[in-house]
Automatic annotation (TrEMBL):
Its cofactor is Mg(2+). NCBIfam families: HAD-IG-Ncltidse (TIGR02244). The keyword Metal-binding applies. Mg(2+) binds at residues 38, 329. It holds the Pfam family 5_nucleotid. Binds 1 Mg(2+) ion per subunit. GMP binds at residue 40. This is 5'-nucleotidase domain containing 2.
Length: 484
């Protein structure tokens, strides 16, 4: 019997492709009959114009409400300054990238807009560039007043926040004004200026007033939902955003009947607490979005529910285990609990893959990385030669290796490099991504490239004790591991 391939998945060619779905764990879509989605940055992707608006409004709030110096207004948003997953030392006012082993990547520490020299970083952290666990923000990336002082920014929405912190620090430093970085952090953060944009609903208003400007990729969202439903899949939505906002966006992307696609719709869910508290009951909203107080004994199609918790959700729907695949962009508040406690399959939305795979595909990156690997292999083998001539060569190679590392880093983002790697190691972000997601992709539209009975097989990448020697790896750059 012959089967014809309807869809050839993008991963089968040699180049990386941003339409590919990458897997950390084997997932068979044939087993999945329920698809769940977060809304912001999962179903709805936003243009950079939104970051600029968030930044401008929070900056002006500092000036108008907290009487920050007028000079800060001159600082415009810098679109590609910060990146997701960075850490911020609240007391020292430093933005930096940390690797999976809690080491700061030297060369990626910024005070304001300027890099901090390596020697100073070492001095500031007691002679090391390791940040101990108790100083790093907790499991959900939150920091408390008395808690850790190094916060990780995991939210895509936090990019304007990091940029505002950097630019405000820069203003105070370059104008020689004494200030307390901890206060600055508090004034900028989610509890004040940035939070005001969200809490007062400014962001919702801007998006609703100009959907075309802020929402991107709506047709693809429609196509994905339509395809899943027409294959008999059940869909649900769990979002922290309010109904009026989600409704407006979904009408724009999917059409006025968008709710017909979904079996359950939950708004203002208060994730991550939705996934780990079993306290808040579900509430129903009527057609006008007004709160009803009737007891919820079932979650019905066509209704809108607010708050609730996952335990009640599981009890009322019976949707458990690997029949369910949930997509979200926030590794902590969307995916961590589902992976660690509840056993749903998880899909991480990482829009940054778009740019990063484009860089990895360039000739320049491939050449630099191949030479970097070869050079490291040479260093490893030649280090036992102690005569002066060899030592000189080794020193030259070490210097060249540093230059190569810098060059490959700068191809991604001149300040912080790739969000997935420090020079060689996975980043703190990358490790969490592998831990909390079964599959990851640039956007849900990648699903359109796969048959709905496709199985994602993660590539078997060698462990350290299985790895071949450096020199044998010349043709297998780390982004393109050999198939065994
Ligand atoms: Mg989201």
């Amino acid at each position: 019997m012959f089967y014809y391939l309807d869809l050839i998945p993008p991963g089968v060619c040699n180049l990386l492709n941003s339409s590919t779905i990458y897997s950390n764990n084997e997932v068979s879509l044939a087993e999945v009959d329920i698809y769940g989605f977060d809304y912001d940055y999962t179903l709805a992707l936003y243009s950079n114009a939104l970051n600029t608006m968030i930044y401008n409004t929070a900056r002006d709030f500092l000036i108008e409400n907290f009487k920050y110096p007028e000079g800060i207004r001159k600082y415009d948003y810098i679109p590609n300054f910060a990146a997701r997953g960075l850490h911020y030392d609240i007391q020292k006012g430093l933005l930096m990238k940390i690797d999976a082993f809690h080491y700061i990547q030297l060369g990626t520490v910024y005070r304001g807009l300027n890099p901090v020299p390596d020697e100073e970083v070492l001095r500031l952290y007691g002679g090391t560039h390791h940040v101990p666990l108790h100083q790093v923000s907790g499991f959900y990336g939150k920091v408390s007043r008395y808690g850790p002082k190094v916060k990780q920014f995991m939210d895509i929405f936090s990019i304007p926040e990091m940029t505002l912190l950097a630019l405000a620090n820069d203003f105070f430093i370059s104008n020689d004004i004494e200030y307390d970085p901890e206060h600055l952090y508090k004034d900028v953060s989610v509890s004040e200026a940035i939070g005001m944009v969200h809490i007062k609903g400014y962001m919702y208003k801007w998006v609703m007033q100009d959907l075309e400007k802020y929402i991107i990729g709506g047709e693809e969202t429609y196509a994905v939902l339509h395809r899943l439903v027409s294959h008999g899949k059940k869909l649900f939505l769990i979002t922290n955003s309010p109904f009026s906002f989600v409704d407006k966006g979904m009408r724009y992307m999917v059409g006025k009947d968008w709710r017909d696609f979904f079996d359950v719709v939950i708004v203002q869910a208060d994730k991550p607490h939705f996934f780990n508290d079993c306290v808040k009951p579900f509430r129903r909203l009527d057609g006008n979005g007004d709160l009803q107080w009737d007891k919820i004994n079932s979650l019905e199609k066509g209704q809108i529910y607010k708050q609730g918790n996952l335990y009640d959700f599981l009890r009322l729907t019976g949707w458990r285990g690997s029949r369910v695949l949930y997509f979200g962009d926030h590794l902590y508040s969307d995916l961590a609990d589902l992976m660690l406690r509840h056993g749903w399959r998880t899909g991480a939305i990482v829009p940054e893959l778009d740019l990063e795979t484009r860089v990895v595909n360039t000739e320049q990156y491939a050449q630099s990385l191949t030479w970097l690997q070869a050079l490291t292999g040479l260093l490893e083998r030649m280090q036992m030669h102690r005569d002066s001539q060899s030592m000189e060569v080794l020193q030259e190679w070490l210097k060249e290796r540093e230059e190569l590392r810098l060059r490959t880093k700068n191809l991604f983002n001149p300040q912080f490099g790739s969000i997935f790697r420090t020079c060689h190691n996975p980043t703190y972000f990358s490790r969490r991504l592998c831990r909390f997601s079964d599959v990851y992709m640039a956007s849900i539209s990648c699903l359109l490239n796969y048959d709905l009975s496709y199985t994602f097989y993660p590539r078997r990448t060698p462990l350290q004790h299985e790895a071949p020697l450096w020199m044998d790896q010349l043709c297998t750059a780390d982004a393109k591991p050999s198939l065994e």
